Amino acid sequence: MLVHYNDERRAVLKGTEHKGNNIKGPTIGGPFSLIDMEHHLVTERNFRGNWVLLYFGYTSSPDVGPAEVQKMAEAVDILESKQNLKVMPVFVTIDPQRDCPSQLRAYLREFDQRIVGLTGPINAIRQMAQEYRVFFKKVEEEGSDYLVESSHNMLCNRYLLDPNMEILKCFGVEYDAEQLSEAILREVKKVI
């Protein structure tokens, strides 16, 4: 986890310009090819033209996951109803073995009809997670059950992407829905 934390502190968000000092660090974000809840192939190109709030999680998360998805849904609702700003919430599973399209649809509809759920082959999920510096690992338990260890509690578990699919900001678990919506609005106003 310390390596992941240090990696995020050095991370250079795509689309970020650095004048003067030449900053070196890993670039966050990149292309992906996954499956949505209707079994359609989805790439980053499908989201171009939209503000996107991207979250990595899994439907069997016992505590952090549901609270974070609820927070995302509430923040998006605040932005749309109070600020007339549409932000597309996107949930990418880090447990594709259990989170098939129908499971994602059933789970996400409990929170908000607008949330787009993405899944796919484990290699595609792992590739996207690496691009976005999201750590996860399957931890075997007795029998056929398992847990998913992840970087939910790290500095960044949500990404705001602009209409060009460039990351503007990362948000951690410390934001409540109101704070998250205010922070998103501030970032959007910097661009438009």
From TrEMBL:
SUPFAM superfamilies: Thioredoxin-like
Classification via Pfam families: SCO1-SenC
InterPro entries documented for this protein: SCO1/SenC (IPR003782), Thioredoxin-like_sf (IPR036249)
Gene3D superfamilies given in the database record: Glutaredoxin (3.40.30.10)
Matching PANTHER family: ELECTRON TRANSPORT PROTIN SCO1/SENC FAMILY MEMBER, PROTEIN SCO1 HOMOLOG 2, MITOCHONDRIAL
UniProt family annotation: Belongs to the SCO1/2 family.
Protein name: Protein SCO1 homolog 2, mitochondrial
Species whose genome carries this gene: Nelumbo nucifera (Sacred lotus)
Lineage: Eukaryota, Viridiplantae, Streptophyta, Embryophyta, Tracheophyta
